[in-house]
Amino acid sequence: MKFVLFLRTNFNRRIAVDLAELEIFRAVALEESVTRAAKTLDRVQSNVTTRVKQLEEELGVALFLRDSKRMTLTPQGQRFLGYAERLLALAEEARQSMRGDAPSGTLRVGSMESSAASRLPRPLARYHGKWPDVRIEIQTGTTQALIDALLAHRIDCAVVAHPADGVPDTLDMDVLGPGLEGTFLFSEELLLVLPHSHPPVRTPQDIQLRSLATFSRGCTYRLCAEDWLASGEGPRLALNVLELASYHAILACVTAGSAVAILPKSLLALHPDAASLQTVPVRVAHTLLVRRSGFATSAYAAFLQELQHG
């Protein structure tokens, strides 16, 4: 199936851009290299170079800054990438809607790292067994990073945590972002995790360590941790924040006795040294599968069904 898009330039000139050009442009933008993009797309390098130059000529702007090592987007290229992501996502949704009820095509899934490790393996295995024609692409990140990717059409759906602790079915989706719909999946019990040798903790003021190991801003669990640490009747507890890239690194800091952390119980259960750590219940956080309003494919529906089965 071939789509051709007709765009109008600032000079009121009508130009045609096909999806193949958009796919090539996106690949070069993501890889920052014609060579790597050609390998990803299984195309010859000269073809990729030619199609990018043709696209730039048709649009009348330079999309890339070129040097000997990499290709980076110009401001116009960065803006055009947003449109390309949306158009390609819509085209894929259209393709799938024309193929009947059997899931097929590509489903781009975002997930918090904790959910990817503790909650997704079994549903993904079942899904692949039932629908081998669907290609699932997984990327992990903080809740905010995944919401940004979803709104930019870089992914189709995301497993994220909602910052509120109310009734799951009444959570305000506007808190996450505009134009989103969410389906409740499960609740996670968040635990304060401390070294085994740390004195017992009942309130935030009992914590003697002065470092919190966590992800970067945008992580809902970090927000929950900061809210809890600011609670209590005593003076506000001020901790140094160690921003780390993985739960392995976070737990390594806790095990070494240099920091505390707040993690979901389901993830901690996977850690081989969990029994040697001290834990304190903090709160419950609700996890949702979020999509853009109106997004609906058979691949997505089947994925949601597997997640709801646990």
From TrEMBL:
Transmembrane segment boundaries: none
InterPro entries: LysR_HTH_N (IPR000847), LysR_subst-bd (IPR005119), WH-like_DNA-bd_sf (IPR036388), WH_DNA-bd_sf (IPR036390)
GO MF term list: DNA-binding transcription factor activity; transcription cis-regulatory region binding
Coiled coil: none
A Pfam family matched in the record: LysR_substrate
Keyword check for Nucleotide-binding: no
Gene3D superfamilies: 3.40.190.290, Winged helix-like DNA-binding domain superfamily/Winged helix DNA-binding domain
Keyword Transcription regulation: yes
Highest taxon of the lineage: Bacteria
Keywords from the named record: DNA-binding, Transcription, Transcription regulation
Span of domain HTH lysR-type: 17-74
PROSITE patterns, A to Z: HTH_LYSR
Family classification: Belongs to the LysR transcriptional regulatory family.
Listed name of the protein: LysR-family transcriptional regulator
Source organism phylogeny: Bacteria, Pseudomonadati, Pseudomonadota, Betaproteobacteria, Burkholderiales
